[in-house]
Design goal:
This protein is mainly α. Helix content is 70%, strand content 0%.
Length: 231
């Protein structure tokens, strides 16, 4: 089989679409106890580390697919899209991967051993190590900002239907709000806007490549992959 750009677009699209249910399931199953998602009671819940493994798997699939999706819309999103993509990718690596790996493979077993449970932060940050907290805070803010920028770039480009860009930007705004952690609800708030937006872009790519075959090319700037209703 010849590896063409269109084939890579399709593989990336499949990856982000598959990531959505994994991230959503992980977010919904993630324990929250007394308003804290990373306390000893929450981390030592019997269901762990299943939610964290689901989230880590979904995040890996998402990051594998995002470069292909960005390449598909890059011509239309311009420099703003490039800045948004780079900051999103880097901040995701720093805030998501480091957090999920520590949470699943360090914090969960530590929380179940009385000798090590004291290493878990009492302020819902997993660890009290200041450089780690600073890294999570800064990269988290950059992550939210990158979603807003990416959403704006998509809206301006019309590379995909406008509602996808609006949903992406709204997801970044919602994450900036001080919404208390609640079982199930927090998972929906975090995963639905971003996951739906990326999965929708993936479906646009799959639709275009299915229609035009493996010789399909990305949309020209200013034109949506899927027609939007006229006003």
């Amino acid at each position: 089989m010849t590896v063409t750009p269109a084939l890579l677009y399709r593989l990336g699209a499949v990856s982000v679409v598959a990531a959505f249910p994994l991230n959503l399931a992980g977010g919904l199953l993630h324990p929250v106890v007394d308003g804290a998602a990373h306390s000893v009671p929450a981390l030592s819940a019997p269901i762990n580390p299943l939610p964290h493994v689901l989230l880590l798997s979904g995040t890996l699939l998402l990051m594998l697919g995002v470069p292909a999706l960005y390449a598909w819309v890059a011509a239309g999103t311009g420099m703003l899209g490039l800045v948004a993509y780079v900051t999103y990718f880097l901040s995701s690596v720093l805030v998501a991967f480091s957090h999920l790996v520590i949470e699943a493979f360090v914090s969960v077993p530590f929380s179940r051993d009385p000798a090590t449970a004291g290493a878990i932060s009492g302020s819902d940050t997993l660890l009290d190590y200041e450089p780690y907290v600073l890294l999570q805070t800064v990269s988290g803010l950059v992550f939210m900002g990158s979603m807003i920028l990416f959403g704006i770039a998509l809206i301006r480009s019309r590379a995909v239907p406008v509602w996808i860009g609006a949903l992406m930007a709204a997801g970044g705004v919602v994450l900036l709000l001080p919404i208390p952690a609640m079982p199930g609800v927090t998972g929906l708030v975090v995963e639905i806007p971003r996951g739906c937006a990326f999965a929708a872009i993936g479906l646009c790519v799959l639709s275009a490549t299915r229609r035009n075959g493996l010789n399909a090319t990305p949309p020209t700037p200013g034109r949506a992959v899927v027609p939007t209703p006229s006003r």
